[in-house]
Amino acid sequence: GHFPAICVCVFARVYMCVFNREIILENNLNTDVLEELAENSEFNESKGPCLAFRRAASVLKSLPSAVHCLGAIQGLPCLGEHTKAVMEEILIFGRSFKVEEVQSDERYQALKLFTSVFGVGPKTAEKWYRRGLRSLKEILAEPNIQLNRMQRAGFLYYRDISKAVSKAEAKALRSIIEETAHWIAPDSILALTGGFRRGKEYGHDVDFLLTMPEMGKEKGLLVRVIDRLRDQGILLYCEHQGSTVDMSKLPSRRFEAMDHFEKCFLILRLEEGQMEGDGGLQKDPGESRGWRAVRVDLVAPPVDHYAFALLGWTGSRQFERDLRRFARKERGMSLDNHALYDKTKKLFLPATSEEDIFAHLGLEYVEPWQRNA
Ligand code: 8DG
Ligand code: MN
Ligand code: MN
């Protein structure tokens, strides 16, 4: 596929995914720092700078080699003044004073800590900070704070779920959920999505799509899977959201970041014995109680939306953002987790695979492992 020159600047990320077949992640130092600045902007509700830092981090990630001099970033798209200033500091002094200022900021530290709890968003974190709270202990000790069910689970399993999930653990969970789903419906289809589908070694959770080969047959399946997991004694927490997909509202419906598929946000109990290949591993005897808690997202789209759901839930968030922006600005199309709509032709473009969607967008197929923007 050919790419119009105009896209190259604005949509550096998609462009680089398509052409830079060998992405080497050597710029981690720089991109981690930029992600922190993005997070800080997010806490300050500065949407523009937040997106700017995220986009800059994404561009640096896509470079085929590490940045060793300022010249290497000259002419790169999406790098703003603030980003360039930070890069300059790092290249000259080996550290960035602007970043260190953010890192040592009391408010930033507190909000980062609070939002690391499952169920706590920036708004709640801000509220707690304003009340003078600074640590998780202080929050738990404060009698006037009402935690919701999700936050209570977040605190209860904080140690476990803030620990990275390994590929082996993701694989073990896949087997458990697949076996459960097949026990209920032998032809059900379970697919790994999220970071692990992109080939990541570690994740903060494990994401799956669950569907049936026949449209409509997926109804009720997810609830039965949840019930079965509960019966097996491995369901530690479940937040279930029913489907709110209303296709009759299309195409007037606005395209959104969140989708309307039936889904559940879970915390599951994973037994150590269920993991393959950890037999020879040394364990900290103090830590070992034989199991850990893991965050799992399970989404159940109807099969006719499956390709869009798979593309949307595979991520990364930045890749999805860039792809949607590309569709909108360069193709006059709206893309979300449910559908692709051509605004000029005023019609929906059907797809049964991710390949179909990239083809509709006039893009070469981008493999999941190339979507780590
Ligand atoms: P990790 O932090 O889990 O290792 O990375 P990830 O797997 O890429 O992140 P994620 O937070 O699990 O999200 C995976 C993808 O799912 C991401 O591209 C965003 C997408 N996603 C939706 N809807 C929703 C939603 O309602 N909540 C969340 N958390 N993610 C969603 O499309
Ligand atoms: Mn994930
Ligand atoms: Mn997730």
Task: Give an overview of the whole structure.
The chain is of the alpha+beta class. The protein folds into four domains: 5-103, DNA polymerase, domain 1; 106-156, 5' to 3' exonuclease, C-terminal subdomain (DNA polymerase, domain 1, Orthogonal Bundle); 165-305, 2-Layer Sandwich (Beta Polymerase, domain 2), CATH 3.30.460; 312-370, 2-Layer Sandwich (Beta Polymerase, domain 3), CATH 3.30.210.10. Helix content is 45%, strand content 13%. It is built from 17 helices and ten strands. A hairpin with a 4-residue loop joins strand 8 and strand 9 (340-342). The structure holds 8-OXO-2'-deoxyguanosine-5'-triphosphate and manganese (II) ion (2 copies). Its EC number is 2.7.7.7.
Uncertain spans: 1-11, 17-26
The CATH architecture of the largest domain would be 2-Layer Sandwich
Please report the total strand number as a whole number.
10
* CATH fold description of the largest domain: Beta Polymerase, domain 2
Order of helices and strands: HHHHHHHHHHHEHEHEEHEEEHHEEEH
By DSSP (H or I, 4+ residues per run), the number of helices equals 17
Radius of gyration: 22 Å
Report the sheet with the most strands, covering strand number, pairing sense and barrel closure.
Answer: 5 strands, mixed
Bound molecules: 8-OXO-2'-deoxyguanosine-5'-triphosphate, manganese (II) ion
- The helicity comes to 40-55%
Number of domains: 4
The strands making up the biggest β-sheet line up spatially as: 2-4-7-6-5
- Fraction of residues in β-strands: 5-15%
Termini distance?
21 Å
Supply the CATH class of the largest domain: Alpha Beta
Shape designation: globular
Task: Please identify which CATH superfamily of the largest domain we are dealing with.
Answer: Beta Polymerase, domain 2
Protein name: DNA-directed DNA/RNA polymerase mu
Cofactor: Mg(2+)
Function: Gap-filling polymerase involved in repair of DNA double-strand breaks by non-homologous end joining (NHEJ).
Subcellular location: Nucleus
